[in-house]
Amino acid sequence: MDSSTPLCLFTGRVEARDGEYVVTVPEQEVELGTLEPGESIESGYTLA
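Given the sequence above, the corresponding structure tokens read:
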């Protein structure tokens, strides 16, 4: 799979909460695991 292909896609709201912006990600969109030192993840979003 091309690294530019998203692995999940969902619609959510950005909420202001205690001086921070919060996006709630549905549980089924999250795969729990671990990161090794030096390993990174990517995320992206589009605001409409």
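The two ends are 27 Å apart (CA to CA). Try to locate this feature in the token string yourself.
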